């Protein structure tokens, strides 16, 4: 089975990387309840991340519906999809654990994700990869921004430490997906720059909405 290595840097990589680092706290971690302020900080974060993972899950599902018969591409898409399943399951767990109200627009994220995945895969393999490149750029940067915020607060609380670890791990995996897409000719897609810009803007708008609604 194809394995996605922990850190894959392809020469075509275009994403600038000055990534936030996460070091486990050296002080004792407390399992105290979150303060009201910490909850207000954490809730929209978990809500938008769950919605993003719903979108990602459905994008890969849509791509596999079209490209599942491609022997070379199928295992690559399948491996990335399998990681998205783990991401989504983790945020489902966090939503339940913290009793976060999920995004009310989940059906929209499902349909939008599937449509984008299916449509780009219908254009061709390169367009499907350009879609992945665009989406994972935005999601990777989004997780990186969140990690910076989490690192900036005093997070010797077990829940916040756990969330930081999750966000750091998923950020790395999303950026690996990005690198894989670029290595599989994302930038050869027809109208690559336009396609990438449109999908990135769509993702940014979805993030803005999903953190609120
Ligand atoms: Fe993901
Ligand atoms: Fe991903």
TrEMBL record:
Binding-site list for Fe cation 1: 53, 84, 87, 174
Reaction(s) this enzyme catalyzes, per UniProt: a 5-methoxy-2-methyl-3-(all-trans-polyprenyl)benzene-1,4-diol + AH2 + O2 = a 3-demethylubiquinol + A + H2O
Enzyme Commission number(s): 1.14.99.60
GO cellular component terms attached to this protein's record: extrinsic component of mitochondrial inner membrane
Pathway: Cofactor biosynthesis; ubiquinone biosynthesis
Keyword Membrane included in the entry's annotation: yes
InterPro entries: Ferritin-like_SF, Ubq_synth_Coq7
Cofactors required: Fe cation
Known partners and oligomeric status: Component of a multi-subunit COQ enzyme complex, composed of at least COQ3, COQ4, COQ5, COQ6, COQ7 and COQ9.
Family membership noted in the UniProt record: Belongs to the COQ7 family.
Name of the protein in question: 5-demethoxyubiquinone hydroxylase, mitochondrial
Organism: Thamnidium elegans
């Amino acid at each position: 089975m194809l394995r996605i290595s922990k850190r894959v840097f392809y020469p075509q990589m275009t994403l600038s990387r000055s990534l936030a680092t996460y070091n486990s706290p050296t002080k004792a971690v407390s399992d105290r309840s979150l303060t009201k302020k910490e909850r207000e900080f954490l809730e929209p974060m978990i809500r938008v991340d769950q919605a993003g993972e719903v979108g990602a899950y459905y994008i890969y599902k849509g791509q596999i519906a079209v490209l599942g018969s491609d022997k070379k591409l199928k295992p690559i898409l399948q491996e990335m999809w399998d990681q998205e399943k783990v991401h989504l399951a983790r945020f489902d767990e966090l939503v339940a654990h913290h009793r976060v109200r999920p995004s009310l627009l989940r059906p929209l994220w499902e349909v939008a994700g599937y449509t984008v995945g299916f449509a780009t895969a219908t254009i061709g393999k390169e367009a499907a990869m350009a879609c992945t490149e665009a989406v994972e750029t935005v999601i990777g940067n989004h997780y990186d921004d969140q990690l910076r915020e989490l690192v900036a607060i005093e997070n010797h609380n077990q829940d916040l430490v756990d969330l930081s670890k999750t966000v750091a791990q998923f950020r790395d995996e999303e950026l690996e997906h990005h690198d894989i897409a670029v290595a599989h000719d994302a930038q050869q897609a027809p109208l690559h720059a336009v396609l990438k810009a449109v999908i990135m803007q769509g993702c940014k708008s979805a993030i803005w909405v999903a953190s609120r609604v």
